[in-house]
Amino acid sequence: MPFNHSRPFTAILSACLVMTFMPGAVRAEEAAETEKTKLLLSAGEVKQLIDAADQSAVILLDIQDRDAFSKAHLPGARWIDVAEWKAAAMADSGDGLTNRQRWIELGSELGLARDGRIVVYGGALPNAARVWWLLKYLGCQHVSLLNGGIDFWQKQDLPVTHKPIDFKTSKFQPTFQKHRLARIDNVKQAVQDGSLFVFDTRSKAEFAAGRVPGAAHLEWVRLLTDDGTFKSAAELRRMFQALNLKPQHTAVTYCRSGGRASVEAFALELAGYENVQNYFCSWQEYSSDAEAPVEK
């Protein structure tokens, strides 16, 4: 049988094409997924999302008060009533966090879907982080924060508008991620057996006035740079490591009513920690429990 010179060449060429293009395709797919699940977005990255042809691919949630929103918000943003969401979560001593019907209503009226991409931003970071955490707790998979909020956005001379938008409601179906939530009984048990690494995110004065025994103090503002953006993941990791937090620990954050604790929970995840819980009802609940031990 005569030797076919084209066959080896064809085989080699095919192998080269596979080696050249398949890894790139895989990397592109992985990069797209990483981008979609990214926790923290820069102003430039959010601007790119807004400029994209299909703006329905991302939902921007603005946590400013209604008056501030009406004066200036990111193009295409939807206003979310943070006070209403907080009240829903804190209702019935935190049992509101499992009120499925209430979360269906709140998520549906904003047109949310668990698999959609959501970016939360505003002026007060604890409120933005509170909404971020609640969305993650409700099962939303791709939720990010705008680094620096609307203040940093405007300092970059990026566009804002006062015009509201029309959007469709949805049939939101929450799936409670209970592993993200710490309850008072979990915290009280941890005081006895050290099963959780508890972070107090409040001010020094609040911490000194009374705290969960054994809690490490790391005020939430220390997680930020002077311009209000988050410190790098590496720097955050060093801060947590300095307090002896280990990867195998389950970290629990608390403040007074869940907002500042949500900032620290976000920073822990940004730093790469996987076992992170938010004691959302926080000191407001804990200090009201006569059986809860307090350290001063």
UniProtKB/TrEMBL annotation:
<feature type="domain" description="Rhodanese">
    <location>
        <begin position="192"/>
        <end position="295"/>
    </location>
</feature>
<protein>
    <submittedName>
        <fullName>Thiosulfate sulfurtransferase</fullName>
        <ecNumber>2.8.1.1</ecNumber>
    </submittedName>
</protein>
<keyword id="KW-0677">Repeat</keyword>
<dbReference type="InterPro" id="IPR051126">
    <property type="entry name" value="Thiosulfate_sulfurtransferase"/>
</dbReference>
<dbReference type="Pfam" id="PF00581">
    <property type="entry name" value="Rhodanese"/>
</dbReference>
<keyword id="KW-0808">Transferase</keyword>
<keyword id="KW-0732">Signal</keyword>
<feature type="domain" description="Rhodanese">
    <location>
        <begin position="54"/>
        <end position="162"/>
    </location>
</feature>
<dbReference type="InterPro" id="IPR001307">
    <property type="entry name" value="Thiosulphate_STrfase_CS"/>
</dbReference>
<feature type="signal peptide">
    <location>
        <begin position="1"/>
        <end position="28"/>
    </location>
</feature>
<dbReference type="GO" id="GO:0004792">
    <property type="term" value="F:thiosulfate-cyanide sulfurtransferase activity"/>
</dbReference>
<dbReference type="InterPro" id="IPR036873">
    <property type="entry name" value="Rhodanese-like_dom_sf"/>
</dbReference>
<dbReference type="InterPro" id="IPR001763">
    <property type="entry name" value="Rhodanese-like_dom"/>
</dbReference>
